[in-house]
Amino acid sequence: MVNIHNAKVSDSTLEDVINEDAHRTRRLIGRAIIIFVAAIVLAAAFGAFDIESSAERSQDGLHVQLRHPGVARAGNEIELEILVESDTPLTETFTLRLTDDYLLFFEDLAVFPDPESQSADETGAVEFEVAAQPDATRMLVRVTGRASDRWDLRTSGNLRVEVGASTVDVPFTTWRVP
To answer: Which of 38, 72, 128, 136 has its CB surrounded by the most CB atoms within 10 Å?
Structure first.
């Protein structure tokens, strides 16, 4: 006698029920997809996609280190950390210039410490004039905001730092994910 514990699918009285071995491949592929999606969700939860990059340039005794997001997502908080170091004390004020392509990447842009002045040139690049502490040989400036909804796979920028007669250009790139 056949009961529920030893019945086989082929014993079914329903015509559309087929043998379980016929769908084994489909079940394995379905499980693999679920495991793959779960792995991506876990990686994102642990910050695997929050990649930071840095770029450094030096010239004429002026050293500039830039930390920026390597990958960003629209609406997420992004931050540029600009460390300016000099062999001699920094001038009373110095200039940071960011290209407009990268500035369009920001919403709610804020610069810390507050710049003494800010202006734009004919290309759309924005210059921030920042005051240094007296006799300081290094200073950290932060530019923060949210990543805009504007969609470009990759956003390139250039940071120019002018301290007295010394100028350093630091090119950098941030990739975007949906």
So the answer is: 72
- Say if residue 41's pLDDT is above 90: no
Cα 73 from Cα 62, distance rounded (Å)? 33
Of 92, 69, 78, 102, the closest CA to residue 139 belongs to 92
Q: Name the DSSP letter for residue 87.
A: S
Residue 120 C-alpha from the chain's centroid: 25
pLDDT at 81 over 90: yes
In sequence order, which residues have a C-beta less than 8 Å from that of residue 71 and are 6 or more positions away?
49, 50, 51, 174, 175, 176, 177
Give the SS3 label for residue 57.
Answer: strand
77-89 as b/e, with b when 16 or more CB fall inside 10 Å?
ebebebebbbeee
**Residue 6 DSSP class:** T
pTM for the whole thing? 0.72
CA dihedral 108, 100, 166, 139 (to 10 degrees): 10
